[in-house]
Amino acid sequence: MYLLLVVGIGVPGLLAEFVLGRRGRQTPIGALRSLIGSRWGTAVGTFNVITTVVMLSFYSVVGGWILRYTLLSPTGAYFAQPQQYFSHASHGLPAVGFHLLFLGIIALIVFFGVSQGIERVSKVMLPAVVVLLGGLAVWTATQPNTAAGYAFYLGFDPDYLAANFFSVLGPAAGQALFTLSLGAGAMLTYASYLDDDASLPRDTVVIAISNTAIGVLAGLVVLPLLISQGITPGQGGPGALFVALATAFGALPGGNVVATVFFFTVLLAAVTSGINLLETPVATLVDNYNASRRVATAAVTLLLAATGSGLALAGPAFRFVSGPVVDVMLTLGLLAFLGIVGWVLREEAAAEFRAGAGRLSGLATPWVVAVGWVLPVVVVFSLTTTVASITGVSLTNTTRAAIAVGVAVACRTAVTRTA
Fold this sequence. Notes:
Elements: H1 2-24, H2 28-36, H3 39-72, H4 82-90, H5 93-111, H6 113-141, H7 147-154, H8 158-179, H9 186-191, H10 200-228, H11 240-251, H12 255-289, H13 293-313, H14 315-345, H15 347-354, H16 364-391, H17 397-418
Helix pairs in contact: 1-2, 1-8, 1-10, 1-14, 1-16, 2-3, 3-5, 3-12, 3-13, 3-14, 4-11, 5-6, 5-12, 5-13, 6-10, 6-12, 7-10, 8-14, 8-16, 11-12, 12-13, 13-14, 14-16, 14-17, 15-16, 16-17
């Protein structure tokens, strides 16, 4: 399901953000305002920036968990009672402290700007993540009793998918949007830095494949390792990664070393994602309000320190924000991007697609048609599923489909009339 959504929604949606970013040459507020030429562009861009702040508010708390486990893995301090340890570490003042430390790390990188900070760090961290995950995947393959884990991870059960398709559609869509940073404007911001002759279709596919490959590599480490130790994936609630893996590492010879390498790898990936999210609100203050990067970084970091600390202290609020709230905000953001590209810009978007695309230029028109007619219906259907799950409302698939078509057509009509 996840891979299907990455290909069907993620790739064309990411391409839409890239087109808007390079065409607008600014952060979300300025880019959308100039492209649309109305206050709605400012409203959508502001919503995107708020989305990145909400995402990073909870993500920096998770980053703090990862940082803590990385530092304590050499001693195996959490091996003996993993559930109790995670319950203590995940919320409360200890979680606040590590959230602030993680936030300070990514803020320091963003402080130095795109070329001196973000690009330099990313060039080291991303290859390191791939190498370390690849090494861990090879090591996992040498461990006993991992065959069942590979069968569980790589197996495909069409009957289960058919029976549960609509129940997993919303969460799977939210996960796909989150891992690709879609709908928040982060990729739009980075696309504003791309050269005019860069192939946007090629870059989009490379990012989607790279992101998916890293996720597959992580799965080749985690699931076989858990099942080889008799641990059922998914047990342990929201801290399943920490609780279940702590149990598995504690049972392995040399588990301290493996745990240290694993959590250090996850930490590198978390820092990379964190700086990607933080750059959007910081660049927005720099571009739209003439703030210096130093002042902008400090202001956004202070805001996130407060919002993240609040979530670190309140478990129910953390779960609500990190789940349904972020899923809905990302889906709405993506729907707005699709509408702007497919309903408002159209030919301009196609021209931007073709710039530097070479032999892929012929896909511009089919892509605009898909973005303007097909994907909005799919995205609204996913949004309807998520909202129904949150509110506890039971809807038949026919009703969801009718709502999706009706909302998509109504939105298109309203936008084209005011554009």
